[in-house]
Automatic annotation (TrEMBL):
GO biological process: cell division; DNA repair; homologous recombination; mitotic sister chromatid cohesion
Source organism: Papaver atlanticum
Entry-linked InterPro entries: ARM-like, ARM-type_fold, Pds5
Subcellular location: Nucleus
Chief localisation class: nucleus
Keyword Transport annotated: no
Pfam family, one: PDS5
Stated name of the protein: Uncharacterized protein
GO cellular component, one term: nucleus
Length: 333
């Protein structure tokens, strides 16, 4: 077996052989887990069904704690069962079994369960109860940074899909309005920086083709459900963004003021600004070095575009154009 469903002997059903051998020597499963996982993910329906049947038979064996020993594989198996027939009578029980493993002691298992539940939700949001999705969201407070970050990315993906479904009228438009609030709350987590949360809110939360009007409409609806803590957290994120904008405006004004003046004096005044602005980035040291490199550039179009970008009167559409123009200029320089 190769993991992609191919075999050197097409008529040979090795799944039955694996089952028979496992009953005599359970330890053999460790070596073939990657192949079975690959078969669960293959595009070939016949192979997927055989893998699901084999694992179903293995998990059903009495006195063989395979589901405990191989939790990631078990989670992938349960997800495959759901996707093959989401309306099956056992669907609620399968989802419940997956949700129970969200509290597993192993971070890899917890992450795998988040993957399984979110994959099913992204296939069709109706397949996963909202309460189960909220249990997934609790992993934003996981002790593992890996699980927390991954959960945030997947929740943003679910919310994007939800926005699309609401936009085309195929879904009730209030079931997942709680997702942005959960993400905003993470700004108080020491493992997350507010700029990380800001990036998710700005770049990952809404579909790429959403208009400004669509985004505003969603934010108004979402914000109306924020509690005091969430309102304060969002205000803090926006205040930090505003301070960065104001400090950049100060820097640009100083550059104009000392354009033909003392370079040493300009450096003395701008250096503290670089340090302050750098604290608003994920890697402050790298950001400060970037500001120093920026300060040495002489492209007039770049400085004009940067001034327009930091102008409070610049519209959202104009700021997007300015940002793209700056990126093109930086690629050339």
């Amino acid at each position: 077996m190769s993991g992609d469903g191919t075999s050197s002997t097409s008529n040979f059903d090795y799944h039955e052989v694996i089952y028979d051998i496992y009953r005599c020597a359970p330890q053999i499963l460790s070596g073939i887990i990657p192949h079975l996982t690959g078969e669960l993910l293959t595009d070939q329906l016949a192979i997927r069904l055989k893998a699901v049947k084999l694992l179903g038979d293995l998990f059903a064996l009495p006195d063989y704690p395979i589901s405990e020993a191989f939790q990631p594989l078990f989670s992938e198996f349960l997800k495959s069962c759901l996707l093959s027939n989401p309306t099956r009578p056992e669907a609620d029980q399968i989802i419940s079994s997956l949700c129970d493993r969200l509290l597993d002691y192993d971070e890899c298992v917890r992450k795998q369960v988040v993957t399984a539940l979110c994959d099913v939700a992204c296939h069709d949001l109706k397949f996963i109860p909202v309460e189960s999705a909220k249990l997934v969201a609790e992993r934003l407070r996981d002790k593992s940074l890996l699980v927390k970050k991954y959960t945030m990315d997947r929740l943003a993906e679910i919310y994007r899909l939800y926005c699309c479904k609401c936009s085309d009228g195929s879904m009730n438009c209030n079931e997942y309005d709680w997702v942005p609030a959960k993400i905003v709350r993470c700004s108080s987590d020491k493992d997350f920086r507010s700029e990380t949360i800001e990036m998710v809110l700005c770049e990952s939360l809404f579909p790429g083709d959403f208009s400004v009007r669509d985004k505003v409409k969603n934010w108004v609806k979402v914000f109306s459900g924020f509690d005091k803590f969430e309102v304060k957290a969002l205000e803090k994120i926006m205040e930090q963004k505003q301070r960065l904008q104001q400090e950049m405006q100060k820097y640009l004004s100083l550059r104009q003021m000392y354009q033909d003046g003392d370079a040493t004096e300009l450096e003395k005044k701008t250096s503290p600004l670089f340090g302050f602005m750098s604290r608003g980035f994920i890697d402050p040291a790298k950001a400060e070095e970037g500001f120093k490199v920026l300060d040495q550039l002489q492209d007039a179009n770049m400085w004009k575009t940067l001034m327009n970008l930091t102008d409070p009167n610049t519209t959202f559409q104009q700021s997007c154009v300015c940002r793209d123009d700056l990126l093109r200029i930086f690629m050339i320089l």
